[in-house]
Amino acid sequence: MKRFLIVGATVLMLAGALNAVPVLANDRDPTVAGQSLRTLAARHNLAIGTAVDMDVLKDTTDPQYRAIAASQFSTVTAENVMKWEVLEPTRGVYNWGPADELIDFARKNKQKVRGHVLVWQNQLPAWLTQGVTDGTINDTQLRTILRNHITAVVKHFKGKIWQWDVVNEAVSDPWDSPSSIHLKGFWAQHLGPGYIADAFRWARAADPDALLFYNDYNIEAFGDRGPSDKTWYTYTMAKQLRASGVPIDGVGSQGHLGTQYGNFDAFQALEVLDAFSDLGLATAFTEVDVRSLMTDGVRAGDSNEINPRLQASAENYSVLLQACLANRRCLSYTVWGFTDKHSWVPGWFSDPPEGLATLYDEFYQPKRAYNAVKADLAFSGPPHVLPRVTQKPRR
Ligand code: 9MR
Does 123 contact ligand 1 (Cβ within 6 A)? Predict the structure, then answer.
């Protein structure tokens, strides 16, 4: 009788223990393939994001866009509605509506928001560029206008933005003239190089709690660290900003890639993230997409042409995500749109045509890249992938 009771109790205890940890053939959760990207990313305390096109988000005839944006992602970026030309189309008249709607969407779906963008040479309102051209706005006035813009925008969204892209795409490319990398564009021309430090200081004064980022493209891997190496130039610039006490908290690497290029591997991408985080900075991939040439064969539906491109695209998404997972200060991995139905790529690269850049096809079917990202999130962990280190805003 006693033995019977002991055996019975042991069976019950075992059953209890096994209940807590479900008995699985491979000690894995068999539902993993059906979980969302955001659920899987949360294991690493990593945010997974997308740029959001507000016109599409509001389009009731296209409900899948909204559903996927809400269910798969834990952070969102305004693709266009936080840019200066949208926020202040007429001098002194702010149009907060579309951006506020995105903030509202994010709040409802428990998503963080990346603010994009405070200082950039593109998508500036005509009143500003024309005023500078016709001389009604001089450089001293321009500096005040920039300061007021940053202050007004950051204050409006105070407490609602996790990371701000404070300065975007300030650094030239090797194909620019001169080919040695330099600060390019409207703001550097008119205000000199000091505008970058100023912008971070003004943003910090307006919101002490947002993380402040420098953001750029083609900085995913180091080159020869010479005068034409944009990644090296950007790293050196970030180092100098840190050394001068500028309140910069992170560097965003956009991650606009193409399968027709040589590209790089996860170790090369990680080397750059580690270099930035060794400066005490957070990192993020902020605009990932991997486009392909739309050859005649691709457009005709020839699988011999399509398959290698879809596979190469998936591989490149994976390279960036693996690097991000391995760098504990890489806080977020954001894709620049998630469906080929609504991607900036075909509109921008038309001669020759490019496309196929996102995680889902035009019919919202997940592509190989989607499952590559999912597998990276699911099948990674210690010792080389550890949870994120929280970044504190620098004063
Ligand atoms: O995706 C954006 C597209 O809808 C706009 O027409 C374009 C205008 O410049 O900007 C695109 O987003 C860019 C982002 O703001 C900064 N990095 C490059 C992105 C792709 O061009």
Answer: yes
